[in-house]
Design a protein that fits this description.
Helix content: 40-55%
Number of domains: 1
Number of helices: 6
Oligomer: single chain
Strand content: under 5%
Length: 120
């Protein structure tokens, strides 16, 4: 887990998502297929949390180089439901690999707060 903080964009997976949004290569459907239907790995979970967080930001609060039009696919009811389901899975203590990585760090509560706040 290439992570340096508990914020939704404080990890390599989130930065990769932001980069692909900036260059126009992000495809939500492809990302959803690559995540499959089982448990998310830690990078997928961090990316899903970042996507959820993006849906909560006002247009003038988006990261540099990301415009509202870049996020259009995230705002559909189906996409929001998928993000909610997957973020909730990431926060599940019984089955989440990213939860297991945060648990021994002493920052689990802060990370859970970030993940909860990212729910669309």
């Amino acid at each position: 887990m290439g992570t340096w903080g508990t914020g939704p964009f404080d990890n390599h997976a989130a930065r990769d998502i932001l980069d692909s949004l900036r260059d126009g290569s992000f495809d939500l459907r492809h990302f959803q297929r690559s995540c499959g239907t089982g448990a998310l790995d830690s990078d997928e979970a961090e990316a899903v949390i970042a996507l959820g967080a993006l849906t909560k930001l006002p247009a003038d609060g988006l990261p540099d180089g990301v415009a509202p039009r870049d996020l259009a696919s995230l705002y559909t009811p189906q996409s929001k439901a998928w993000l909610r389901r997957r973020i909730n899975q990431a926060m599940c203590s019984d089955s989440s690999s990213v939860y297991a990585l945060w648990e021994p760090t002493g920052e689990l509560d802060q990370w859970l707060h970030t993940a909860q706040a990212a729910l669309p």
